[in-house]
Amino acid sequence: VFLTAFFASKVEHESKHCNGKGFQRPGSSAFDRVYTANQNCGHTYPTFLAMLWCAGLLCSPAPAAFAGLMYLFVRQKYFVGYLGERTQSTPGYLFGKRIILFLFLMSVAGILNYYLIFFFGSDFEMYIKTITNAISPLLLIP
């Protein structure tokens, strides 16, 4: 919520400093960058929430929460990088994709474990939690 409010305030700030009314401001590259970065962050937020919820519920809450916090920091880095040159936002974008992939794989592992329990009676929850706890610090590596 705070990150979204920050992004919205940046868009409002840039729109006040540009001439003209509405969102059609030709020649305002600063406003265009801020507005586009805000839209990009807003479009990925529902996917992030779904992946975070599924990974925390189906697999392990602690690594999912850690990945969620990392994702919020990465989106901040992406947004600030987008305000400069577009190439500055690339590391934040790629890092965010890696975190979403980690959350997705956690969700898939949780679903597979559920079906293994349901059909075969084998429970690999302890192994999955150990692996995700060991892998989650690797998300810090850029």
TrEMBL record:
Keyword Nucleus among UniProt keywords: yes
Cell compartment(s), UniProt: Endoplasmic reticulum membrane; Nucleus membrane
Gene3D superfamilies linked: Membrane associated eicosanoid/glutathione metabolism-like domain
Keyword Lipid metabolism: no
UniProt name for this protein: Arachidonate 5-lipoxygenase-activating protein
Keywords: Endoplasmic reticulum, Leukotriene biosynthesis, Membrane, Nucleus, Transmembrane, Transmembrane helix
Quaternary structure, from the entry: Homotrimer. Interacts with LTC4S and ALOX5.
Signal peptide: none
Source domain of life: Eukaryota
Gene source species: Eudyptula minor (Little blue penguin)
InterPro entries: 5_LipOase_AP (IPR001446), MAPEG (IPR050997), MAPEG-like_dom_sf (IPR023352), Membr-assoc_MAPEG (IPR001129)
Topological relation to the membrane, as annotated: Multi-pass membrane protein
Membrane-spanning segments: 50-74, 95-117
Function: Required for leukotriene biosynthesis by ALOX5 (5-lipoxygenase). Anchors ALOX5 to the membrane. Binds arachidonic acid, and could play an essential role in the transfer of arachidonic acid to ALOX5. Binds to MK-886, a compound that blocks the biosynthesis of leukotrienes.
GO CC terms: endoplasmic reticulum membrane; nuclear membrane
GO BP terms, alphabetized: leukotriene biosynthetic process
